[in-house]
Amino acid sequence: MREVAVVGIGVTEFGEKWETSFRNLFVEAGAMALEDANMSGDQIDEMFVGNMSAGRFVLQEHIGALIADYAGLVGNHIPATRTEAACASGGLAFRQAYTTVASGLNDIVIAGGVEKMTDVGGSVTTDALAGAADREWEGLVGATFPGLYAMIATDYMHRYGLTREQLAMVSVKNHANGAKNPIAQYRKEITVEDVIRSTRVADPLRLLDCSPVTDGAAAVILCPMEMARQFTDTPIRVLASAQACDTISLHDRRDISTLDATVAAGKRAYAQAGVTPKEIGMVEVHDCFTIAEICAIEDLGFCAKGEAGKLTEDGQTALGGSIPVNTSGGLKSCGHPVGATGIKQVAEIVAQLRGEAGARQVDAEIGMTHNVGGTGATVVCNILGV
Amino acid sequence: MREVAVVGIGVTEFGEKWETSFRNLFVEAGAMALEDANMSGDQIDEMFVGNMSAGRFVLQEHIGALIADYAGLVGNHIPATRTEAACASGGLAFRQAYTTVASGLNDIVIAGGVEKMTDVGGSVTTDALAGAADREWEGLVGATFPGLYAMIATDYMHRYGLTREQLAMVSVKNHANGAKNPIAQYRKEITVEDVIRSTRVADPLRLLDCSPVTDGAAAVILCPMEMARQFTDTPIRVLASAQACDTISLHDRRDISTLDATVAAGKRAYAQAGVTPKEIGMVEVHDCFTIAEICAIEDLGFCAKGEAGKLTEDGQTALGGSIPVNTSGGLKSCGHPVGATGIKQVAEIVAQLRGEAGARQVDAEIGMTHNVGGTGATVVCNILGV
Description:
Two copies of one chain form a homodimer.
Chain A: E1 4-11, H1 22-36, E2 46-50, H2 54-57, H3 63-70, E3 80-84, H4 89-102, E4 109-115, H5 122-130, H6 145-160, H7 164-178, H8 192-197, E5 200-202, E6 205-206, E7 216-224, H9 225-228, E8 236-245, H10 260-273, E9 282-284, H11 290-299, H12 308-313, H13 330-334, H14 338-354, E10 366-373, E11 378-385
Parallel strand pairs in A: 2-3, 2-4, 9-10
Antiparallel strand pairs in A: 1-7, 1-8, 4-7, 5-6, 8-11, 10-11
């Protein structure tokens, strides 16, 4: 397998983008990535795009070809593939793209992700998102997606003594980071009190524990490391890309407060990259809910089980801490256009490792991403380095 | 890249499967494939599953993990990925699986496809299928999927003099083949008169020109050729797997009666396999409508443009002809559970090359598949040989 680099990144502004469409969101991100890599579309050999539920959000399937067409990539009739694993759809696209470059099948590949969630009403959105969980054994009996994560939070708080305030601090920290990110949906700081007093969604989770509904797209361009300096002075190496699955239903897990797929994907990624958690300088984790960040920090090995609340309270996951988590603002503040999130995470690591992250810049030479589908039935972890 | 073989196949009966569910359909096909390969699920390294629109048909996304879970494959936390390109979703799954084995990333991979289309009403089905075309520039202005293929048929018949009878003969031949296939949805022979007198769907296409709405699943197991004889005495080699895209809208094509993505994917597949159309002994093409088979035969190089009607009329595409087309009964008679079709095509070639195709057995050493998404915005071609 060849060494692979990321040579271009593009992320749209995240938010409620009434003025644009599903396809145009991606075109905007793709064009930014091409420009960033100083290349033209006809240099692309293949494309992978992550998307969860365009069938329900914009009544459109066949997303790979649609996106390739509107991004001007059909001239060479390249292969264009949509990958889907709910909220980990973008992570899958990145891993497939990485694999085809590493194997020598392709030289230059674009990996993207896109979701347009605000073209339908809130009840359709909520129901479509419930499609990430088990429709037959969870959705149809009334479990919403926040409801499932609320069960994880309840179990975790009971077993490990996490306080309501510590949980809120995840959101406060991510909003502090997002306030410094020009593409973030919610660029404002909040307090622990704001979180604790916000509307109850599914006890103990409140509105400000939950990532929002968001439109957005992201794209990154990969090529062999040996070609990378044709396109950029700051290629970022892909040290690992690993994926794992678990039971789709929460009730089938041996332990709902540990995501075994996170543990498995993390271990595989560390082994591929030949590093340990101690060597990771920053990490973008999948904080679809505040409790998800707490679990992820532990399941990826950054602290022992039960200690992530204290790590957060001590400021160790903030900018300047021992392991900055979600410098982008995470899903909570940056926003969570489902299919795009896994790619945006990679773009954030690349921007940081290049030293282009502006007010939210941290000092890191190796960064990691952690992208989760559903309540943990799919996890993709990538490790990148200078 | 390593040589890859198919060592196991499984296809459910196709039809209106009221008695089973989306997930159980796949489990049935997957279990058959494992049994056929004399292996257990814990030997699988990775899984790819093609599915077009479970989000709309059964309100379920996150298909890879769901299927891996219900197929008993989560114990090792393998990666499980859904691929989607409308009716070519299964073809994409096969190609990704092939790539990961050929590259050495994986040893044993399962590629599957599944669609459960009859759990919703007909109008939802039709609208979901229209998601394979361009929703904004085709669907929203009233173009149905049969309507788009009717435009191709009208253009083709006008330019090349194809007769209504010749078009019907595609369906008659495929029903004759399907009548010999135990898994086919419509196991009965029909006449040219039956086709011509059937209900008008979108002029000139009539009901018996159109593939049906179908539930079904298919799975195949791939491994390196050097391991294949551990699992089967009749491994079938994958000589090529190629994919191409084109504009999603018909009106953006330079010529609507030639599918440029078919031409591109076909040429790539021939080049990979080092063969010419003359060396192909049989082919499963994507006859979602009769006109699609006519175009495919020509675009893949089995005869010159405009001659596929005569080739069909002369019986050259029938069992025992010079190039048997759709020995399985094709999408028309065998049925078209969208995500499963691309995998079922591979399974048919494998069964034929093994000499296990019973009453529809043809004499071939090399076979080809042709799987189309939408009106030709995605095409996957595979070539397999003994």
